[in-house]
Fold:
Amino acid sequence: MFESTTERRVFGAAVLVIAATYGYFLIFAEFAFLELLRETGGVGRVRLAMGLLGVAGVAGSGLAAWRFRVESYAKALRWGAFGCALAAGLAWCGGLNLAAVGIGLSLGWLTVTLAAGLRATVGPKRLGLAIGLGTGLAYAACNVPAIFRATPQAQTGLALGLMLAAVVATRGLRTGRAEVSSSGDFEPRRAAAWTVILMALVWMDSAAFYIIQHTSELRAGTWGEERSLWVNATIHFVVAVGTGVVLDRGGLGRVVCGAWVMLACACVLLGEQLRAFVGAEVLYTAGVSLYSVALVYYPARGGRAWLAGVVFAIAGWVGSALGIGMAQDLNAVPLWFVIVAGVIVVGLLLARRRAQAKHALAVAAVIGLGSLTFPATSARAADAEVLRGREVFIGEGCIHCHSQYLRPRTADVMRWGPEKPLAASLAETPPLLGNRRQGPDLTQVGNRRSREWNKLHLIDPRGVSPGSRMPSYAYLFQEGDGRGEALLVYLASLGVETDELRATQVGEWAPAPGVSGRRETGARLFTRLCMNCHGAEGKGDGVMAMRLSVRPPDWSRDAWRRVDAADEAGTLARIIKFGLPGSPMAGHEYLRDEEVVSLAAYVRSLRGTGP
Amino acid sequence: MANAVGVWLAAELVWPALGDALAPLSYGRWMPLHMNWQLYGWCALPLVGVLLAWCVDGRHPQVVGQVRVVLGAWSLALVLGGVAWLGGVTSGKLFLDWHGWARAVLPLAMIVLWTVCAAHAWWRRDVDSGRVKGLRGVILAGLLFVPGLLYWSAGREVYPSVNPDSGGATGTSLLGSTLGIVTVFGLLPVMLRLPVCHLLSDKLPGENGQELKPICHLISDKRVWSAGWFWGALAGSWVVFAGIDHGHASHHGWAQVGGLGLLIGWVPLAWGYFRRFEWEAPARPWLYGAFVWWLLLVVTGWLSFLPGVSERLKFTNGLVAHAHLAMAGLVTSVNFVILRQLAPRREPRGNFALWQGACVVHVAALLALGWWERDYAGDLFRGETWTLVLYAVRLAAGAVMLAASVRWLAAGKA
Structure:
């Protein structure tokens, strides 16, 4: 996992500093300090001190963002930790208002500095894991019964000790190269969206925490028993570490969505009717761990000090103040608020996805233009369009009627072949083997259907193939909607490399010896399958003829176009069965030999050359 | 809901223009709703009910609210899944369509279910025997992995073994999934006989009006645990499963065919096990029905896996018939055994026959279509009259089954 001992040591030191910082915040700033305030004064004093703490927190965050230099990362952290320890000491001695200012300033400084330099210290690959481990350790430790139930003075002493430990741990840090993420997630507009998302989560958490803390029944249910505390500690640790791993795999959107779902469920379950419901406790605990890791990870991933400052000042301090204020006033989290928060979180994430899609298209367009001079990039652009078309294929549920698997040694191979190796099918994500066929297999459809035919068929399936059960996909081809074109590119890509093999396969085919045709069968099939393009008498005047790029011939007048005069019956049968690749003339691969022979004989009779 | 969507899909196959009218909500977008709502709704929810009935402590003052939250979360997950699939957000994997923003919704609902079950199991630990606690612990420990497994398996990068000669499931996969059903069969009598289910439905008062104690009497009943032959055979079957090739194995291999054939033995074994118990009178017709379907399912499942037959039926309506035989026939019958056992009540007049009769017609029509499809695929693709007639018969049978479901719904509300 680590390439050197130094790397491991730096990672461990970073985890310790994160754990100490989060531990200080959880056990002291958010908990013991409030108890000390309550012990020494009324509600008014608590509000004043909390107000001071919040304002100082925003100021400390801004200051840290302004003064941040990656070269002096460890030193800045030491100053922050030292300031936090000093503030805890002040609180212990009774100087609570001054301590509130000190906590706000130093904690604001410490958190922003910590997040801004983590990427340069542990690198982007294990960033989520480091944050998850540190956060999980802090949450787990704070839920250990002996710590959780200690007196506020003892907890304050512990917080002071944590900060001194952080000062020592910073000596193990080694600042790497200052680098920032180039992802669009950190551009100002998207950063604003992420800040709003994180603020909504902090808001919900703070409100839920306040309600639990101030409702004796809930407090007893959540933190009352030793068992509950151990369960909470375990959930916190497991979820935080798991979240870190997911974040390292690019799952930030999933994490915040999951956090919202869990916090939203917890907030709803905290309503009057369902109080003491054990699910609220579990969901709240897991949801908090999820978003707490994301809250540090997002700015840390960006590697920008200003971003860390904005996130912690607005999402952290302001969001927290709003949540506590709401809980104080309403003593509940209104359902409308949960829904609005959800709309904001999901809405902004969806907007982000759309922006990413646009970005991908723009990239594809640039690559496409570049292809005029660089053929290699052209292939990449084509690949992107194929992938997009594949997504359309999946989204529209084409798999429910069309397989993409040709069973070896069966009629499948002659109808729609050649075979495709199983390994090649399974290498695709996901494989689209299918389950049943309301229509033909599409494994190699690119070698037997032209783009033109596919488009016409998708828009007007029963016009092109009378009797087809396929619905119209005309909506994919509306102006401005590129899905239809992408789907055509995808279909054309299927089996594109098998043209020659298919041609050989088709060339070797002939109806079974001794099979004879029947005029009635031929006439019936012609009316059913051919008349729409070729017209009732083969004059090329069918209702679809005008929509084709190549008008069908008038057999009463024109010469055969692609029929070998030396083997008229055989060639015609082959064209009827397999079509003319590249042209609008599609095959009818599923016809049985007697049907093909009957149809060929009927067509020849229309031209006057039949038997 | 799932049946209604099924009828809509069947109607689209008879009148394809119907699909155009609802564009872009095309046939392919509705299919995941039908399949997943059947699986995770109709097939799963009665089992969720069994689990809740077995785990929840009826003495808890908020038990009803908590069960409603569980069922609400599960239903919400299904609704959100439906919205996603109609919107074209799907993994492209049948029965595992959970994808994108909707990938986690059912696992989250499962977590809510597990949390409630685990909490109640903990709260009632003082009144349960050690054996019950142990069994409950083992089952809950196993279920803890299910949400994560579902989330993982819905990923596009995960795909099961494939039979290279058919493009479908291997014999090993089919054996494993069916043995899973047999295991559920084995546990059902254990879990259904707990009186907690009566507490939930308020059907059976305690003796002399005293408060009911949620103690599992049946666990001490020798009839369950003395059926050692059943559990021994099940363990043996799982050992056979473990020993068969789990890779991309063909149905032309004797081990795959023989291994799957093992299931035929489970027709008399399961029957012998189930008949040891006293089932509520309203549940018995469904039990008999379930075993007729079980017999058909196992035998036809094995036959359709045989070389030659598989080639004829794969990718056709024949296998769709088999899926309906399993879902509409066996699973529905088992579900009604569960429902009638949990809350014994009479059927709406004639509904049993209505459902079972329509199911037979439905399966027969699809099987007939599937049997001829290999040689007459063109007739199906271009909508020849005989294929339309069979699809129309299937539609009519589906409509009758939908009507029967509506009658059950109405009777339940009454």
